[in-house]
Amino acid sequence: MIDVIGHQFWWEVRYRDPQFETANEIRIPVGRDVRINAISADVIHSIWVPQLGGKIDTLPGKTNTLTLRADRPGVYQTFVARPGRPSIVGRTSSRKTSYRRRSSRTGSSL
To answer: Which residue ranges form the domains of the chain, and what is each CATH number?
Structure first.
């Protein structure tokens, strides 16, 4: 399970097992369903991974869930949008499907 917290202009990503955090990138194992808990720290955010079939909105004070599954390794384009803010629609970031175990002592980047 992964918690993804939307902040204005960045995403906080918290992994539960093992426990560590990253920013703006999600790494998931190939061939397994991974549950994403989407939360907003401030405003409405949306995240969409078309190749993995998922789109979810985040709202302040509410947790929404999405299950992603990557059947092959790769980098998948993620479209990030906020309703009512068309100038941001289509901005992309990458989500990788490779996965490495790291301890919480490694800092906030993968």
So the answer is: 2-106 (2.60.40.420)
Higher pLDDT, 86 or 21: 21
Phi and psi (nearest 5°) for 70? -105, 120
Give the DSSP letter of residue 79: E
One-letter identity of residue 103: S
* Structure-block tokens of residue 79: 């479209």
Answer whether 30's CB lies under 8 Å from 100's CB: no
pLDDT in tens, 45-104: 888 888 887 788 889 999 999 998 888 888 887 776 555 443 222 333 445 544 443 433
Bridge partners (DSSP) of residue 101 are none
Q: C-alpha angle 49/91/35, rounded to 5°?
A: 25
Token pair listed for 19 = 């426990």
C-alpha dihedral sign at 23, 35, 59, 20: negative
Distances (CA, A) of 45 to 4, 63, 96: 11, 12, 20
